[in-house]
Amino acid sequence: MLRQTALCALFALFPLLAADRPPNVVFVISDDHGWSDYGFMGHPGVNTPNIDRLAREGLAVTRGYVPTSLCRPSLASIMTGLYPHQHRITGNDPKGNARDAANRASMVNVFQESKTIAGMLGAKGYVSHQSGKWWEGECKCGGFTECMTHGDVERGGRHGDEGLKIGRQTMKPVFDFIDRAKESGKPFFLWYAPFLPHTPHNPPARLLSKYTRPGLDESLAKYYAMIEWLDETVGQLMAHLEKTGQASNTVIAYVADNGWVQLPGNETFMNSRAKLSPYDAGVRTPILLWAPKRIAPRRDDRNLASTIDLATTVLPMCGVKPAREMPGIDLLDDKARARRDSIHGAIFVHTSQDVNRPAANLKYRWMIRGNYKLIAPHSANSAIPIWESSPKIPWMLPRAEVFDLAADPREANDLAPSRPELVRDLTAAIDRWWTPR
After folding, report:
1. Element (H, E) at 101
2. Rounded distance between C-alpha atoms, residue 244 and residue 361, angstroms
3. Which of 4, 68, 103, 267 qualifies as a FRET site for 353, CA 20 to 30 Å off?
4. Domains contained in the chain, number
5. pLDDT for 20
6. Could you give the CA distance from residue 138 to residue 148 in angstroms, rounded to a whole number?
7. Do 213 and 200 contact (CB within 8 A), yes or no?
8. Between 218-243 and 49-57, two packed helices, what is the crossing angle to 10 degrees?
9. How many degrees, rounded to 5, is the angle at CA 338 between CA 334 and CA 341?
10. Looking at 227-355, which runs of residues are DSSP E strands?
11. Pairing state of beta strands 401-404 and 188-193?
């Protein structure tokens, strides 16, 4: 304990010593990735040495969560540091014609009402680059100075278009940006959100061959190979930062946008209680923060964290005061993590019924206090399918559920029928967080 305290004190000095050199910031965001599917999380079959390095050499908060388990609103929360009911991006698409530019622009316009990390860092002199997943139209609308995504509906723009080539086809746009930023002498913010390990699960043959073996379902082998493909690109990114001499002054934040469970036989994810669900398979993700000389290596398996905390953690490192409406904490503050007793989130329909009113799209609220987790259905919207193309989902809930995550991490034993007083207590607490109107 004394050794860790001394290390933390030593590392706390480095931001002061480097106060005249704002750090570069890199967000690495995995896409549809199960929270336990990493080497450092104990998975016996997945090879993730580069992400494991981030966990080993930085702060690894393993009880991390996204506030909602769907990519667009989850990414919007990462970028704004706000809950979905605050920034009002609650689904992937607006109701109606998905190819109508004006219809899609209605959600982008809502997003632009919130401050973004890219925009706030830009005001501090940062240059920034978007690659990979991006839903909010032409990405300069999010505050980036340059980007891969054009967002033009007429040219196939929806969730990343040209940006989705990063990682799967090339790393050159990212490397070129890093090189230009170095030449300019300006600090940079990089949004690296590759379409990995997201379907289609079509990994390179050289990786798939490592997982193809008797007794392992082919769909699982492909998913595991996709994860290693993602990990390879993280290694390439880190190697380029090191090659250009910028790793020592760069902060890397790693998360997944939502969870995933790959069932044998390529069954739909809707049967897995993962994506779009309020269960941990959908909303849990480890949160990693890596910065040589700035962040002391440590692992936190006890305290709760949320991806809304990324903004309130990274912005102060760059000399930027978080916006007053951002409810997150500074994850580098060990005492702040220990003081937090609960986190919250909400699940909404995939296709927003009303882009201006989050409650119209709400299906569940959820919260974790200590080890107890409440999942509370929003009965007013019970008739609205969470996913229009799959209206009959096995895990749709008629009533509240409560789980003890310490004793039952897979959420198989619902305590609600036997603990009505706990249901009432947690419901009152979640109403204090957000009461939908």
Report:
1. helix 101-111
2. 46
3. 267
4. 1
5. 63
6. 9
7. no
8. 60
9. 145
10. 250-256, 287-290, 298-300, 305-306, 342-348, 351-352
11. unpaired
340 token code pair: 């937090």
Name the residue type at position 400: A
Cα distances (Å, whole numbers) of residue 346 to 18, 112, 125, 278, 280: 39, 21, 35, 7, 12
Q: What is d(CA 21, CA 19) in angstroms, rounded to the nearest whole number?
A: 5
Summarize pLDDT for 366-392 with one digit per residue, the tens: 999 999 999 999 999 999 999 987 777
CB 60 within 8 A of CB 253: no
Residue 158 lies in a domain: yes
Phi, psi of 61, deg, nearest 5: -100, 105
Instruction: Give the C-alpha separation, 172 to 180, whole Å.
Output: 12
- The tokens describing 168, both together, are 């799967």
Residue 418 domain-assigned (yes or no): no
Residues 315 and 319: their CA atoms lie apart, in Å, by 6
Domain that holds residue 43: 2-340
In a domain, 121, yes or no: yes
Angle, to 10 degrees, between the axis of helix 218-243 and the axis of helix 172-184?
20
What CATH number did the domain enclosing 34 receive?
3.40.720.10
In a domain, 238, yes or no: yes
The three-class DSSP label of residue 131 is: strand
- The structure tokens listed for 333 are 């503050």
The residue whose two tokens read 């890219």 is 118
Over the stretch 261-296, which tens digit does the pLDDT of each residue have?
A: 999 987 667 778 999 999 999 999 999 999 998 999
- Residue 151's CB: how many other CB atoms inside 10 A? 27
Q: Which one-letter amino acid corresponds to residue 386?
A: I
- pLDDT for 265 equals 85
Tokens 């009965």 correspond to 379
Confidence of residue 231 (pLDDT cuts 50, 70, 90): very high
